[in-house]
Amino acid sequence: MEASKVNQLKLFIQQCDSNPALLQDPALKFFRDYLEKLGAKLPASAYGKGESAKKTEAKDSFVDESDDDMPELEEQFGPSSTSPKVPEETASDDEVVESEVELDNEGVIEPDNDPPQKMGDPSIEVTDEKRDEAQTAKSKAMEAMADGDLDEAVNHLTEAIECNPTSAIIYATRASVFVKMKKPNAAIRDANAAIKINPDSAKGYKWRGMARAMLGHWEEAAKDLHLASRLDYDEEISAVLKKVEPNVHKIEDHHRKYERLRREKDERKKERERQRRRAEAQAAYEKAKKQEKASTCKPCGATGGCSGGMPGGFPGGMPAGGMPGGFPGGMPAGGMPAGGMPGDVDMSKILNDPELMAAFSDPDVMTALQDVMKNPANLAKYQANPKIAPVIAKMMGKFAGK
Q: Which end of the chain has the lower number of beta carbons within 10 A, N or C?
């Protein structure tokens, strides 16, 4: 290049460097595209309104794709068709990670870790005298609760439980005191005892539901409170449900969202597997076509060579008389002549059949076909084989011109 033109180019590049906006000129778009192909990163000011940098791929027109063997292969087989592309996993196919649910946790407390409270012995016999003592202790507990002395109330109720451990209502009453004392785990233990004694204990479900709400166990709390409300509705249950249910709805929506995402991920995985299998079958088919073209006998025009062998390296032809054993889709009358396949058999019918070509890539199928071609009497071994029998039947149909 002349020195004057080199100086002009140098001056132009200096101007672009000091003022990249010059590259917005549509007349210079070719130069900008050239710089991007070289891997240059241009500033945003080099692009006009509505334009942006092009994403360059690892492989572009400047990648050296030379291959010493390629001309020979193209001369032998002709231009290669684009090989089927097996889909790859993307970032969106990573494991679905659940985010935290934003809940209203106002009023949720840390669990109480006190030793379990005293429980009654359900195996003892409860006499009328013991029932009276239990009722007296319960009355004292109610008085203590009215005075705000919750510890004293617990003591009296524990005495009542020891006198009459078969009373669900006494357990439920002590559970209510533990809820007021903000001891949800102790309340749940008493509520469980009440429900075990009486599965229809409305108070047992009520106080267990409220204790679970205090721990932030929203779904379990809602279940208990709804059941308690059906057994014996009261306003206190309704008030707690108004706080619990919005959180439950958020949790359910969250679960539905991520179940859907996991289903979609599984569907994408299955679709990739289907595409991979199709791509492998297509690749095997393309390979077989090239091999057929390479082995075409130019003097006689027969495909697959003149030796009479089957594609894929099968030994020579079938004996006269056809296939034994009454195999479905058998040979035409008279069978295949010994020593090889007849010259008028169009091997392209087999090589152009994707299902057969895909089957030939299965080692089990290939072993069986070679076994049959060596000794046709061995065909009887494969008549009941669900994988081998349809392949052989389809091949026989091709030989028969079907």
A: N
Eight-state DSSP code of residue 39? T
3-state helix, strand, coil in the chain (%, to 5): 60, 0, 40
- Which tokens in the block code for residue 228? 């308690």
pLDDT score for 302: 47
Tokens of 319: 């004996």
How far is Cα 122 from Cα 107, in angstroms, rounded to an integer?
35
Q: How far apart are CA 341 and CA 327, in angstroms?
A: 19
| Alpha-carbon span 353 to 239, nearest angstrom | 71
Tell me the three state secondary structure of residue 21. helix
**Confidence tier at 142 by pLDDT (50, 70, 90):** very high
Whether pLDDT at 350 is above 80: no
Q: How far out from the chain centre does Cα 264 lie?
A: 7
pLDDT at 355: 82
Rounded Cα distance between 52 and 48, Å, is 8
Place of tokens 């599965």: 199
